[in-house]
Write a structure and sequence with these properties.
The protein is of the alpha+beta class and 525 residues long. Helices cover 34% and strands 22% of the residues.
């Protein structure tokens, strides 16, 4: 009985040690966030470590995360880092109860690890290490103060004369000060981004010199469950590596165009860009991570400057005309690099430096103030958001971010089609059912869509009116559904007459292929 009663007393210091570790970690993170305000948001420990994890994660694992968590993948990663930090913090606190120096060293080491991750990020400087180092030091100091208020574990419960009041006061003070620092960091961070928010709110986009024609009345079939022809900004897919969305002040934004074959390098501010003739064009974007039937495609009306005009002004010639550069490397403010074929952006298509989306300035999440949009290419080789630099080089000389991670350097969009309604697993009533969806083959267009049931004969669907070759196209097929379980499949033919392949291929290295299929159950009337 004596042993049973004494065990909780002997464990209590370790429990309080774990609590001390959590409080110390909270203090370290709060101070680090405050210091990050003076450096840049990307330098905060959680963001820096998360970014480093993304950079080093194998492509196949990234694709799995996108499939499992969709656009919540960044939130899941952040929560995972916080949980890991909490576990390490508790371990440091428990270790410090018996081996004070080792536990405190572990707390400080986590700060050093965060600093190393921060300086490894693109666009990082030595200053990016400061938030994590400050946070690690704060965590070590707070852990030391809390652990010194605890008794050394001994064989007799209560013999150490633990000063519970002192520990409680220290813990509450640390939590209060940390909460204050964290709140100050959030408020100062919001104040720091206020200029970017105000610059976007005050931006009035000029009328386009070449406006897009109205969307044809028959382009949107308006069938329940079918994706709208124009994707609202809030529903437009977002797949990128930015754990913190860059908030760029439009007034201070600059774009540099330079590199091989550039006779006259250009540096442009947003006002200078907007003073040029603007073009409006409807373009569907597609992510290479989009699986067959996946959601990572969206259609919008973009407003921007023709990229080809800027490149020619700088003296750039395509390789077919003797130009030395075959790759245009776009770099974002957070260091992301995307490589686009020079020949493609100069072949006459409406490749844009976009400043507007669906009638307003670009949302921050979609690249404000300027991003690239190139119809016919997957986003990872063309759609650089938060653009700040365009450098002319060659594919042999430079591998952009995703190419270094096993993706193909060139990636034209593959013909794809998708069934939006009915959804897989739907329970239907026998009779006429509208089977509808979208198909895309940007820069080639869609000329035909076919549907089949249970691997039977292909039946031609009715196409909605086309809005050019650079957007997706809606389709519908009226099915006389009979009772039973059925599998519906769809395939498309592009504007060149090439039929979408049914051969299944994964997204890596240059986009998925195969026919989208849904399984439904049909009951009698």
């Amino acid at each position: 009985m004596t042993r049973t009663k004494g065990t909780p007393g002997r464990l209590r210091p370790y429990v309080l040690g774990a609590v001390s570790g959590l409080v110390a970690a909270f203090a370290g993170l709060a101070l680090a966030e405050l210091v990050a305000v003076a450096v840049r948001p990307e330098a905060s420990p959680v963001t820096a470590v998360g970014g480093a994890v993304v950079d080093r994660t194998p492509a196949a694992l990234k694709e799995w995360a996108i499939r499992q968590f969709a656009t919540a993948d960044k939130l899941v990663l952040t929560l995972g880092i916080v949980i890991l930090l909490a576990a390490v913090a508790m371990a440091a606190g428990v270790l410090a109860v018996r081996h004070r120096s080792a536990g405190i060293a572990l707390a400080a080491a986590f700060g050093v690890a965060g600093a190393a991750a921060a300086v490894s990020r693109p666009e990082a400087t030595w200053k990016d290490a400061l938030p994590s180092l400050a946070g690690g030091l704060a965590a070590a100091v707070v852990l030391y103060l809390l652990v010194t208020a605890l008794p050394r574990p001994g064989p007799v419960a209560g013999a150490e004369g633990m000063d519970r009041r002192r520990f409680g006061r220290l813990a509450l003070a640390a939590v209060a000060l940390s909460a204050g620092a964290g709140y100050a960091g959030r408020r100062l961070g919001a104040f720091g981004s206020a200029g970017a928010t105000a610059s976007r709110a005050g931006l009035v986009l000029p009328a386009p010199a070449a406006p897009a024609p109205p969307v044809p009345a028959g382009a949107d079939l308006r069938i329940p469950g079918l994706s709208p022809f124009v994707t609202p900004n809030g529903d437009f897919y977002r797949v990128d590596t930015a754990l913190v969305v860059p908030r760029v002040d439009a007034d201070s934004w600059r774009l540099l165009i330079h590199g091989d074959g550039v006779d006259a390098p250009l540096t442009l501010g947003l006002r200078e860009l907007l003073a040029r003739p603007l073009v409006e064009h409807d373009i569907t974007l597609t992510c290479v991570s989009n699986e067959v039937g996946g959601p990572y495609a969206g259609n919008a009306r973009w407003l921007g400057v023709r990229l080809a005009d800027l490149l020619r002004e700088a003296g750039v010639r395509p390789p077919s005309q003797g130009g030395p550069a075959d790759q245009l490397v776009a770099r974002s403010v957070d260091g992301m690099t995307l490589g686009t074929p020079v020949e493609t952006v100069l072949d006459g298509r409406e490749a844009l430096l976009a400043v507007g989306m669906n009638g307003g300035p670009l949302p921050f999440e979609h690249g404000f103030p300027v991003r690239m949009v190139v119809p016919g290419l997957y986003g990872y080789v063309s759609a650089c958001k938060w653009l700040r630099e365009l450098r002319l080089t060659t594919f042999d000389a430079y591998d952009a971010y995703w190419v270094r991670r096993s993706w193909a350097p060139r990636a034209p969009v593959k013909t794809q089609s998708r069934i939006d309604t009915p959804r897989s697993g739907a329970e239907l009533t026998a009779g006429r059912v509208a089977v509808a969806g979208v198909a895309w083959a940007q820069h080639r267009g869609i000329s035909r869509v076919e549907v089949r049931v249970d691997a039977g004969r292909w039946r031609e669907a009715r196409l909605a009116e086309a809005d050019g070759n650079d957007t997706w196209r809606q389709w519908v097929w009226q099915w006389e559904a009979a009772p039973g379980r059925h599998v519906l499949e769809v395939r498309a033919t592009d504007g060149t007459g090439a039929v979408q392949t049914g051969e299944r291929a994964a997204t890596l290295p240059d986009g998925a292929t195969g026919w989208h299929a849904v399984s439904v159950s049909v009951s009698g009337r």
